[in-house]
Amino acid sequence: MKIKILVSGCLLGEQVRYDGKIKYKNETLFRLYEKGFVVSICPEVVGGLAVPRAASEISVDRTDIINKEGKNVTPYFIKGANIALKYCIEHRINVAILKSKSPSCSNNLIYDGTFTNTLKNGKGITTQLLEKNKIYVFNEYQIKEALYMAGIDLNDI
Ligand code: SF4
To answer: Is any atom of ligand 1 closer than 6 Å to the C-beta of 10?
Structure first.
């Protein structure tokens, strides 16, 4: 079975971001995608949220996810995280490369829940679930480490 990694759709240039913009296409990841090494996911979109959508942040007390309009969107985020885990199980994935600073995908920093553009330490909802299930989650600045962990050599593709 071919090695697969899970990658955030926005890092592949898919139009899935909350603002509908394509901002972060990563050429290395896209090449891996074209060669069949990547399962793409946007947890927020597969969880049922639209493009565009109101930006969301994990609440200050970290109990819920609230969008900028004040709506509690936690169930969408949980559904998306569970679908991401399902993809990993189906494809025997144990490495993911997900977008930093996202309330779904981040493995390091999240916005603090005040919508004031302030970051704090924390992980997105999907990352939390994947890590609980022993899947290594890296971000777009850690691609080399992620590929090493997955056993993919860029020189071979
Ligand atoms: S960071 Fe994650 S949830 Fe946000 S647009 Fe990218 S893939 Fe979707």
So the answer is: yes
The residue length of the chain stands at 157
CA 104–ligand 1 middle distance (angstroms)? 7
* Segment 1-18 mean pLDDT: 96
Residue 115 Cα to ligand 1 midpoint, Å, equals 17
Q: How high is the pLDDT of residue 156?
A: 84
Whether residue 104 has its Cβ less than 6 Å from ligand 1: yes
Which mutation among 7, 8, 82 tests ligand 1's pocket best, with the greatest number of atoms within 8 A of CB?
Answer: 8
CB burial of residue 28 (10 Å; 0-12, 13-18, 19+): middle
Rg (CA), the chain: 15
Question: Confidence class of residue 28 from pLDDT cuts 50, 70 and 90?
Answer: very high
Residue with tokens 């493995």, as numbered in its chain: 107
What are the boundaries of each domain within the chain? 5-156
pLDDT band at 157 (very low <50, low <70, confident <90, very high): confident
DSSP 75: H
What pLDDT is stored for residue 1 in this prediction?
81
